[in-house]
């Protein structure tokens, strides 16, 4: 058996879908587990809808989640002459034929099938007619001469043996009447020329696989092995589409889901290995196999993704977490200034507390990251006359202490509680609003210690608080 080679073959007609990412991941892991190669093929033959921006986004998305392909990208549109050559070869060896049916004839056949509530299958009118009967005013399509009798069995590496009656596969078009190749022809030729040994893709491709196998057999090519993985559904059990929120990688990266966490989640979405939940990249490659893939569709569960992300936030090294935060803020929020680095790093232990995403950490750290306090206007209403007195008195008392720690701050806060006959919230809330702009956020003592005495005094002198 030749060295394992797999591929992922997206069309650059939109942002990369989360289901596509999982398919790419399974192909990549399978190849790496077998010490083989993984290739990226860009299927850009739909000239109207294919865009370079989507091609760039696909490559960037795969790289972001840690999937790197071997060699250059294989660009399908550069191989069209090879596809046409194979179509002509199939014509020559009697496995394809020219079909001169007009659009009106085809529409009439489809209409009759609808009336009978049957799936449309082309009636094979031109299968055995000679070209001397051909009308002069119609450019023909070229159809593949599918098997009519018997059954075919697909030995699927995930689904097991799948049997189909051959007469249910129509004589499908391989070249359109403008001379351009169709998906099933192009994919077959590309997979053969690329030397693919395993085709791992969504189970919505099963019928295409039966068609492509017939092309392989007709050309006397060595057949690859096929594995069809169940699709991803929404939590309600519907097929996940590009119109759903959280269907592309960008939807996840912009709320601060980290690549390792999402990759780990997608790995476990429809695949299992013993009772293991968390996998490093090395463990993913070592443990991955096709036997662990389930046969039923998986449901995309956002709460599970957030939970996985929270696990990574809690467990990765804080230097690494800081680097993720810097990268995230640079793309989606405020760029973190270099002089804020030490303050944020020292505060990460509490800034990441209860955070499920990098966005949560940013929101917790906003009071450090931003030079000026951004006041929530609703929360600012809490700064009444009594609150202003508490803030002023706290500012005066803090100026008398040299070191900021909980042991020194607690007596000051307790004294204010007693003086103003209130509770911790009555003192803490106005101070939190004054220092961060919001009544929500990290603990009061953590905020004060992280900002430092000089910054505290500056913020408590803000004219909106006086």
Q: Specify the helix fraction band.
A: 40-55%
Span of the ends, CA to CA: 80 Å
pLDDT average, as an integer?
A: 93
| Low-pLDDT regions | none
Strand order of the largest sheet: 1-2-3
Q: Give the structural class.
A: mainly alpha
Query: How many DSSP-defined strands?
Result: 12
The number of helices is: 19
Q: Biggest β-sheet, characterized?
A: 3 strands, parallel
Radius of gyration: 31 Å
Anisotropy-based shape: elongated
Strand-residue proportion? 5-15%
Strand-helix topology:
Elements: E1 5-8, H1 18-33, E2 37-42, H2 52-64, E3 74-75, H3 80-92, E4 96-99, H4 103-115, E5 141-144, E6 151-156, E7 160-165, E8 173-175, H5 183-193, E9 198-202, H6 206-218, E10 225-229, E11 232-233, H7 249-253, H8 259-268, H9 281-287, E12 298-299, H10 302-315, H11 318-332, H12 341-351, H13 358-369, H14 377-380, H15 385-398, H16 406-419, H17 424-436, H18 444-451, H19 453-460
Helix pairs in contact: 1-9, 3-5, 5-6, 8-10, 11-13, 12-13, 15-16, 15-17, 15-19, 16-17
Provide keyphrases for this structure.
466 residues; mainly alpha; three-stranded antiparallel β-sheet; 19 helices; elongated
């Amino acid at each position: 058996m030749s060295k394992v080679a797999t591929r992922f073959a997206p069309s650059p007609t939109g942002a990369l879908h989360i289901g596509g990412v999982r398919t790419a991941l399974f192909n990549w892991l399978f190849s790496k587990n077998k010490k083989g190669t993984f290739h990226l093929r860009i299927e850009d033959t739909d000239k109207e809808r294919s865009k370079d921006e989507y091609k760039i986004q696909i490559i960037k998305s795969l790289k972001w989640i840690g999937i790197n392909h071997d060699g250059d990208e294989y660009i399908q549109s550069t191989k069209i002459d090879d596809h046409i050559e194979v179509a002509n070869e199939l014509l020559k060896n009697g496995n394809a034929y020219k079909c001169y049916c007009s659009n009106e004839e085809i529409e009439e056949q489809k209409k009759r099938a609808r009336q009978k509530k049957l799936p449309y299958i082309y009636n094979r009118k031109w299968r055995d007619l000679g070209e001397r009967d051909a009308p002069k005013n119609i450019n023909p399509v070229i159809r593949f001469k599918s098997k009519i009798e018997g059954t075919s069995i697909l030995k699927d590496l995930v689904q097991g043996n799948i049997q189909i009656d051959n007469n249910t596969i129509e004589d499908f078009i391989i070249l359109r009447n403008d001379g351009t190749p169709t998906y099933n022809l192009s994919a077959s030729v590309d997979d053969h020329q690329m030397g693919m040994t395993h085709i791992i893709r969504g189970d919505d491709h099963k019928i295409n696989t039966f068609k492509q196998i017939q092309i392989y057999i007709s050309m006397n090519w060595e057949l690859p092995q096929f594995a069809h993985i169940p699709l991803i559904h929404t939590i309600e059990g519907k097929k996940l589409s590009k119109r759903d929120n959280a269907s592309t990688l960008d939807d996840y990266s912009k709320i601060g889901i980290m690549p390792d966490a999402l990759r780990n989640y997608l790995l476990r979405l429809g695949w299992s290995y013993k009772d293991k939940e968390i996998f490093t990249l090395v463990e993913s490659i070592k443990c991955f196999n096709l036997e662990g893939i389930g046969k039923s569709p998986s449901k995309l569960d956002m709460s599970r993704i957030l939970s996985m992300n929270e696990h990574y936030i809690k467990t990765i090294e804080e230097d690494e977490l800081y680097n993720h935060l810097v990268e995230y803020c640079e793309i989606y929020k405020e760029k973190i200034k270099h002089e804020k680095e030490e303050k944020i790093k020292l505060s990460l232990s509490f800034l990441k507390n209860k955070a499920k995403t990098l966005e949560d950490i940013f929101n917790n750290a906003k009071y450090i990251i931003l030079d000026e306090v951004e006041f929530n206007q609703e929360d600012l209403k809490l700064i009444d006359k009594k609150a202003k007195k508490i803030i002023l008195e706290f500012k005066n008392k803090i100026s008398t202490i040299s070191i900021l720690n909980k042991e020194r701050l607690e007596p000051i806060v307790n004294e204010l509680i007693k003086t103003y006959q209130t509770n911790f919230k009555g003192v803490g809330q106005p101070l939190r609003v004054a220092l961060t702009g919001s009544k929500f956020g990290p603990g009061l003592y953590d905020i004060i210690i992280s900002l430092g005495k000089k910054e505290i005094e500056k913020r408590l002198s803000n004219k909106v608080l006086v």
